Amino acid sequence: MSQRLERVNELMKRELGAVFERDCRQPGSVLTVHEVAVAPDLRTANVWVGVLGREQHASEAIEKLNRQRGHIQRELYRRVKLKRSPQLLFKHDRSVQRAVGIMNVLDHLPPPAPEPPPEDLADAGQAPQA
Question: CA 26, 21, 88, 49 torsion: positive or negative?
């Protein structure tokens, strides 16, 4: 990915966060922009949005963002001046929920088995390692 696209992605991510904070409040949920990926031709931009709240609120929030896409794009492109204004496509980013699930599984693993003492290795027919 070119340096220019990386800068455009970061700029759009930061400014979309500000637009969400000001114009796109969801009752019972918090919206965060996790990643923006603008196509090299600047025609489309995938926006991965994290929704903290209940799963039902998440799907409703993404649907609402896609319905309000025109308004969000206008607000964004008042703040970000580009040669071409990409069409925003909002997608739900579930990486935080997956990470929490993995952490819960890791927290509930049994403790590791203790190392056998060296004399037990000799009794089993193996020579102790020096």
Answer: negative
